[in-house]
Amino acid sequence: MKPQTCIIILSLIVLIFGCASPDAVKPDADQTVSPEDEIFFKAEKLFHSGSYKKAFGEYEKYYTQDPNRPFAVSALMKMGAIKLNFGEYEAARSIYSKVPVKYPKSSYAAAARVEILVTYYKEGNFEKVIKLASTLLEQELPDVYVARISVILGDTYLAMDAPEDSIYFYTTAVNKSVDPEKREIVNKFKQTIELLDMPTIQSLLEHIKDDFPRGYLLYRLGLYYAEEERYNEALNVLSEFLNDNPEHENAREAEELVEELSKKTVYQRAKVGCLLPLSGRYKVYGELALKGIELALMQMNSKDVNSSIEIVVKDTAGDDQKAAEAVEEFVQDQVAAIIGPIVTAESAAVAAQKNNIPIITITQKDGITEIGDNVFRNFHTPEMQAKSIVSYAIEKLELKKFAILYPDEKYGTTFMNLFWDEVLNYGGKVVGLESYDPKETNFADPIKKLVGLYYDVPRDLKHKEKFRKKPSGSQTRSSLEDAQTVVMDFDAVFIPDEPDKAGLIIPLLAYYDVDDVYLLGTNLWHSQNLIKMAEDYVQGAILVDGFFAESKVKEVVDFVKVFEAAYGKKPGFIEATAYDTAKIIFNMISRPDIRTRNAIKKGLFDLKDFPGVTGQTSFDDTGNVWKKLYLLRIDGDKFIEIP
């Protein structure tokens, strides 16, 4: 049982209606009391003076002498109450059980059944309480008994750590009771709400229509949103609460909170902030991104004469502190959302999350979207690249076995692990794995290790089938003619490195007879330098990238044409990514149903297959982008898009 639940149960263990024992019965002033009934009135005096054991004896004497005496049923009820108060639950239950059997038409019959519920509750037999209470509530009972049974059920579910069920029964009890009992039940209800988490309150609000519980639930939900700095959501909920419950006991606190939150959430829906490095070492990337954003803005405002979108550009200079400070300035500028940054993304994302401003970063930085639900990323990731190229190699080319030759540094090891994982996910195998020092320019040793030429092989194994010699093609290896032969049990080799390194490695692979396999690379291979260095040896190589200016996709063709007309050159990946990001934001804030920053955030989460020039774009439930990337093949001196 949760500690908070225990506290509530201990503080409320005495049920609202006490033990429901009847009030003291006194003879009328002019009533003649028989000697037999004198015993009962003697028991009453003892009971109400606190002499319970003596009172029990007198009640029992009275009842056993004649169960048909006028006060016999009252005696039974008091006997049950005494046993209940002493914790003798089974004995109390046995006594109470006689009442509806012997006196079915008595007004005490229903009361006795309720007291039986209490005995089971006190024993902790909650399943019995629920089962018996359900049976009782199927009968037509006076409201006072329905209220009491509902309280017992509320307490029972609370003891079972199911406060959401308690809410339902306490609500029923409130509706069926009268003061002062109602006030006590409302207090129970309010304390129980404090135990509910946000998802539970949201679920209850979907099903409960009763004004009484909805008011308290809405207020509590508004507080939750405010505590999590989800200010737009808090304002929406608290406004609904005040509209429906203007006289509620929490109305004044809600009004004060709404006023405070309103100051934090004021924004201009047509104003967008742009965080870019326009000075410093990353200046060139910032300038490229700004071109893409400005082109998207020009198209948006020219397409819609009613559009009044404006951008507020701030220079981060590639500095974390400046990026965070710029976000705080955006708060004063009342921007609806933020595009960027390219670098310094973490500090900017933290500040945007704190101020509840949706931000779409243009970065590969690990874990950036984990900062909060206002943080998104529109940038192709290593995971996307690995998945795209492996799925094509296995599903389309029907390759099964792969080798990986990678630089022993962060980029290389990241792609090595991701590629390997994807191969396994798609049912393939990695049968060769070698790393090399990224500072070296001679890659002979790792290649020889990959194909089994590095270590001496015993003479008696040289002619085994697994060391069969492959044709060497046009290349000769006179120094190796008498050495062991090539072992190449893979269909493709993946090399995640920059074009200058790959341009040295690929011809060397052919030299060692690795010339009948597919070559696979990352977006870094999308460079004319690779073709110039490796020439014939790189033909047919397959790579993946986030943008391809020569694509025949209509969106890309139109974008490239307009970009060239505006800037006199073809766009690259940074310009295209910034262009897509800006179009996503501009389209979002232009929608008539988007009136709050929270609605912008929700709209981004709901975005599916946006037709961007960097591929069809969606955001997952963590804020990370997912795209269909471009697959390219080297053909002559060109890169050709693979449909």
Structure description:
A seven-stranded mixed sheet has the order 7-6-8-9-10-14-15, sandwiched between helices. The longest helix has 21 residues, at 283-303. A hairpin with a 5-residue loop joins strand 12 and strand 13 (625-627). The two termini are 59 Å apart. Residues 1-22 and 461-483 have low confidence and may be disordered. The chain is built from 25 helices and 15 strands. With 643 residues, the chain is an alpha/beta fold. The chain folds into five domains: 39-116, Alpha Horseshoe (Serine Threonine Protein Phosphatase 5, Tetratricopeptide repeat), CATH 1.25.40.10; 124-180; 196-265, Serine Threonine Protein Phosphatase 5, Tetratricopeptide repeat (Alpha Horseshoe); 267-379 and 552-621, Rossmann fold; 382-545, Response regulator (Rossmann fold), CATH 3.40.50.2300. The protein has helices at residues 3-11, 35-48, 52-65, 72-85, 89-102, 108-123, 126-137, 143-159, 163-176, 181-193, 198-207, 211-227, 231-244, 251-265, 283-303, 320-333, 345-354, 382-396, 410-425, 444-451, 499-511, 528-534, 554-567, 573-589, 597-606; strands at residues 271-276, 310-315, 337-339, 359-361, 375-377, 401-407, 429-436, 492-494, 518-521, 542-545, 610-612, 615-619, 625-627, 630-635, 638-641. Helix content is 53%, strand content 11%. The radius of gyration is 39 Å and the shape is elongated.
